[in-house]
Design goal:
Layout lengths: L8 H28 L7 H10 L4 E2 H6 L5 H13 L3 E5 L7 E5 L1 H21 L3 H27 L6
Antiparallel strand pairs: 1-3, 2-3
């Protein structure tokens, strides 16, 4: 016996599955680009971490708080990226417990290569108004989904009326 949950249910479930597949495919794209660039000392997840830091200076806690990475995972990756020369770490002069991260030149070069790849991939989708409108609609839907999940994590289940 199946339970009918309304017309939104199937697309919602399909989106959840697609999000996970897209993330894995995106890591495959990064892995392929790393190979093309001859970079063998880091993995796709670490390249994505560098890309998310970009030209900013960030505190490790910010990466965790934004929900990008789990605690032990981000610590391991930051250590590896620092040892390989992609990242620099500096203790905050105001709070010695806080460590600021910044991309080294090697990390900036890789970040720029990934940015170029992203621009090239985005261009293959097309630049016409219809495509732009579809992308904006998709972005709005994904942001609503993120807010729904964030609210659930922060406030728990909201009871339907």
């Amino acid at each position: 016996m199946s339970i009918y949950c309304g017309p939104v249910s199937q697309p919602y479930f399909d989106i959840i599955r697609l999000i996970e597949r897209l993330h894995r495919h995106f890591l495959d794209v990064l892995r392929t680009e790393l190979r093309r660039l001859g970079i063998e000392d880091i993995n796709a997840v670490q390249a994505l971490l560098l890309y998310n830091i970009g030209e900013n200076e960030v505190v490790i806690r910010d990466l965790k708080d934004r929900g990008y990475y789990q605690g032990s995972n981000v610590s391991y990756n930051i250590k590896a990226l620092t040892e390989c020369g992609y990242l620099t770490q500096e203790r905050s002069p105001h709070d010695r417990r806080s460590v600021r991260l910044k991309l080294a030149d090697k990390g900036l070069n890789l970040c720029n290569a990934i940015r170029k790849l992203q621009n090239d991939l985005a261009a293959t989708l097309g630049v016409d108004e219809a495509t732009q409108a579809e992308l904006i609609t998709t972005l709005n839907t994904m942001q609503r989904l993120e807010r729904t999940w964030t609210d659930f994590v922060q406030y728990g289940r909201i009871r339907s009326l």
